[in-house]
Amino acid sequence: MALNGTLRPGLVQLRVLDFDKTLNFYKNILGLNEVCRIGEDRICLKGFDEFDHHSLTLRLADEAGLDFVAFKVASADELEKMKLAVEAFGYPVDTVAEGDQPGFGKRYGFTISTGHRFEIYSEVALAQKGPGIKNPDIWNEPPRGMRAQRMDHFLLYGPNIAEAERFCKEVFGMFVPEVCNTPDGNRLAAWITSSNKPHDLAFVEYPKPGKIHHLGFYLQDWADVGNAADWIALNRLKLDIGPTRHAITRGLSIYFWEPSGNRIEVYAGGYTAYPDNPQRVWDSSELGRGLFYYSGEVIPSFLEIVT
Ligand SMILES: [Fe+2]
């Protein structure tokens, strides 16, 4: 449910090291469907419950990490208005031509304070194999592996997240259901949304720019988080933490690394966010309980490893 001009994060491009093990993970273990290829070095995928053309592009590269995240806005008019608002905020904007990614119209791109490339677009074709719309079944083909339904959110690490948070509110029209502050009152982390999801994206303050902590995919429920744990074990994927519960967002969660070294979260649940609800505020001394409600402790790898 869009509450403003920005609908949701709709496209992420990740760097991966190979297309054999990594693509096997995304298709057969996570359960995404391959949609198309772009040249020799990019492969486009989507979750079975996503309507738009694709939501994840994997690009072959020498190191793992994030190329960009792209947000779908409600209309072509809104896109042009938002481009002007980005420029007025102080970020130079470039144009990515229509067709750079199959199915996608023109995209505008810019770099925010944390060093991440953000893009916005309004036009994207519907997927050929999307969810049913006429007397629809719950799915058209049995979901595979972890049964990831859709790309859900991402956690970005970089400097000056206070400005990034202000950008998301003032330009994207998003709101901030939950934050974590240091004892001296500075922002350590923020969870930000354009919808009823508790977060579409989150930021953690970090000295190096442009880093991604994890990309999150949505599962149905606790049983599917347990199913994901079984797939992690069966395929000898490196587990980071979970299954566990966040107090922040209240999500049910497990984190692990895909074969190229990008951290993935599969996630279910979470509270319903409304922009008029009071903001939930965490002290950094309580962050362990906020992140991992049962143990109350953050493991070092979770804080320190990013790509
Ligand atoms: Fe997450």
Description:
This protein is of the alpha/beta class and 307 residues long. It has two domains: 6-121, 2,3-Dihydroxybiphenyl 1,2-Dioxygenase, domain 1 (Roll), CATH 3.10.180; 152-304, 2,3-Dihydroxybiphenyl 1,2-Dioxygenase, domain 1. 18% of the residues lie in helices and 36% in strands. It contains six helices and 17 strands. It has helices at residues 21-29, 76-89, 161-170, 222-234, 287-291, 300-304; strands spanning 6-16, 33-38, 42-46, 56-60, 65-73, 94-96, 107-111, 117-121, 150-158, 175-181, 187-193, 201-205, 211-218, 238-245, 251-257, 263-269, 280-283. Strands 14-15-16-13-9-12-11-10-17 form a nine-stranded mixed sheet. Strand 14 and strand 15 (251-257) form a beta hairpin. The longest helix is centred in the N-terminal third of the chain and has 14 residues, at 76-89. The chain is globular, with a radius of gyration of 18 Å. It starts with 5 loop residues before the first strand and ends with a helix. The mean pLDDT is 97. The chain binds fe (ii) ion (FE2). Fe (ii) ion (FE2) binds next to strand 9, strand 13 and strand 16.
Unreliable residue stretches: none
Number of domains: 2
Strands of the biggest beta sheet: in what spatial order? 14-15-16-13-9-12-11-10-17
Number of discrete helical segments: 6
Radius of gyration: 18 Å
Helix content: 10-25%
Number of strands: 17
Secondary-structure element pattern, one letter each: EHEEEEHEEEEHEEEEHEEEEHH
Portion in beta strands: 35-45%
Structural class of the helices, strands and pairings? Answer: alpha/beta
- Report the average pLDDT across residues: 97
* CATH architecture descriptor name of the largest domain: Roll
What's the overall geometry? globular
Bound small-molecule species: fe (ii) ion
